[in-house]
Design a protein that fits this description.
By secondary structure, the protein is an alpha+beta fold. It has 2 domains: about 110 residues, Class II aldolase/adducin N-terminal domain (L-fuculose-1-phosphate Aldolase); about 150 residues, L-fuculose-1-phosphate Aldolase (3-Layer(aba) Sandwich). About 40% of the residues lie in helices and about 15% in strands. The protein contains 10 helices and 9 strands. A hairpin with a 3-residue loop joins β8 and β9. The chain is elongated and about 60 Å long.
Length: about 270
């Protein structure tokens, strides 16, 4: 077996969590990541017959039976992942009955996966139906996105249109827009189901007064999605007190979409009817 600490998926989790903590997206033990792994690749580093323990998943995840994930731990600080990945991360396999996670590696202090795992797994199920290549669910608490939820109307069309209008890159990076949920108690199956429902249509879901969920095929894709939303939210919040002289118009957004060949939410723009 190869050295698990040199596995590309472990190193990627180390780099990403460190970067997210550095940016202030994941204060204390805030935020979580789940990354669905390739079984053949994991098999080079771990013996699948060695199950350290079983941990209840918190809901029926039978649709993901046999799938393997590396997941951040509950109560763990992102700033510590790089120094001690075996304590702060875990690799789990969803059992055949979908009710348990088989721990293959990690959580060496007796810990377990994030309390948001049911929400993650529900979102993985939803995104895999929309995009079979989806691999990542990422949750964090970016400052300006959170601030925006305090002062902006929290409705999908309105939030998306504001973010698109802040800077040229927005509609290019997330032409599918952003989903929005009202404030809900975190760590519950209720918020997990609501998020998964939004994930049928969006790769990004903003939780009012809490944070954002992102989904995608790679760590870079999801990080970039959240990074772009946060940059646009920052522009909005920094200019909020002022009389704005410029904003990207609906017609200009259409021109951008056509230039880049985007499939975008046309219903999120107010354009003259043909």
């Amino acid at each position: 077996m190869k050295n698990i600490f040199e596995a590309p998926f472990v190193r990627e989790m180390e780099r990403t969590t460190a970067n997210m903590y550095r940016l202030g997206w994941d204060e204390r033990n805030g935020g979580n990541i789940s990354y669905m792994l390739d079984e053949a690749l994991v098999g080079k580093y771990l013996d699948f017959n060695t199950v350290l323990r079983r941990i209840p998943t918190g809901f029926d995840a039978k649709e993901l039976a046999g799938k393997i994930f590396i997941v951040t731990g509950t109560g763990k600080y992102f700033k510590n992942v790089d120094d001690d990945p075996e304590t702060n991360l875990g690799i789990i396999r969803i059992s055949e009955n979908g009710l348990d996670a088989e721990l293959l590696w990690g959580y060496k202090d007796g810990g377990r996966f994030t309390s948001e795992l049911p929400s993650h797994l529900m979102s993985h199920i939803a995104r895999l139906k929309a995009d079979p290549k989806n691999r990542i669910i990422m949750h964090c608490h970016p400052d300006y996105t959170l601030a925006m939820t305090q002062v902006h109307e929290m409705e999908e069309k309105a939030v998306t249109r504001t973010l698109w209008g802040q800077m040229t890159e927005s509609i290019v990076v997330f032409p599918d827009g952003v989903g929005v949920l009202p404030w809900m108690v975190c760590g519950t199956n209720e918020i997990g189901r609501a998020t998964a429902e939004k994930m049928k249509d969006f790769r990004l879901v903003i939780w009012t007064l809490h944070g954002i969920y992102g989904a995608g095929r790679s760590m870079d894709e999801v990080f970039g999605l959240i990074e772009t939303v946060e940059k646009a939210a920052k522009q909005y919040m920094l200019t909020l007190p002022y009389d704005k002289k410029q904003c990207i118009s609906d017609e200009e957004l259409v021109a951008l979409a056509e230039q880049f060949g985007l499939t975008y939410r046309k219903d999120f723009l107010d354009l003259p009817q043909a």
